[in-house]
Design a protein that fits this description.
Distance between the termini: 27 Å
Structural class: mainly beta
Shape: globular
Number of helices: 0
Number of strands: 34
Largest sheet: 4 strands, antiparallel
Amino acid sequence: MRSFLYAGFFLLGIGLSACTRKQEPIKTNLLIATNNGDLYNVNLATGKLQWQILDQRNNDELTYFTQQDQTILRAYSDKRIVEIDKQTGKINWVFTDEVSPNQAEYGYNFSGVSHLLFAQYPIIQGRNFIFGSSQGEFKSVDQKTRKVKWTHQIHQPVYCSPVMFNNKVVINASSSIRTLNLTDGKRIATFDLETPAFLAPIVKDNLLYVVDEHGGVYCLDANLNLSWKHKPEIAMFQQTKLNFSEKDIIYGDTAMISLKKRGGELNWRIVLPHQIDKKGKNNLLQSMEVMDDVIVANTPHYLLVIDQDNGEVLKQKHFADRETIGQIKYYNGFYYYLCSDNNLYKIDQDLKEEILVAKNIRYQTERAIDDTYIELY
């Protein structure tokens, strides 16, 4: 379980549709990044590693990456952004971020702040990638030349990735949400938050959604006008992203909440089951997938199937002697997840048949950040 508030781990995770929906292209490989900087490409048919990149820098890593057709773009906390060949694992190039020479002109003092990249994918727009750093800088960089096209400076560290919305860059400045011009990075509009937010905004159905650190949800239009706001009766510790069904928004911490997308009214709230372990009462939500009429979620010791309509727990699997780590991912009738025994598993939709997919996926259980990020192709 993460102890860092800034580490929103499920910024921008893409839910896969259930098999009853429109047929998707066949996925053959699973990419999984872990909290010590490693990245694995697992062949789903054989369970064998197609390649692995073992990072030797002993960093606590925020594990996100972005897929392109042939490559992966991954940001590391130590200022590196790396392009990796998806088929071979070969590193094509490394970009190392540097503080802009004119940063002091803005009058902000970052002298006591380590230069890091927190929770960056980064995002890709055309031939450029865009990211933010702990030095309060958002940058757009040309992928081919690795030259910085523009920089937008804010007054505090950047804790999450920007997103694209209607051809504008949307950034979370913790106390406010801003839109920037894609061409030059200049500010277009600002929406001030009542409570700080540390997770990336989510774009859904031509609206922008933001969740703050206490579980308050804001719905904004493309011009950052407020459509509605929801404030939970019980303040939350919010470190997982918002998830969406056709009509509802689902999110949580030790409880799970469902809101109506239209208007933000509360549908239901449930407390997640827990197990007492060395961390205490351990039932903090790690991730979820919204699947047709159910929600599949994991806490460290439980895998849960929950009715979307009323929050009833329909099925559950208890992990007594190990923990699930980070993200759960659905594909082709199975849920995939890493456990604290350093093995990747899949389990059927009835939560009965668990199968070992791959061994020795390195994960540091004593790290401050417990997270994985999984994508398929």
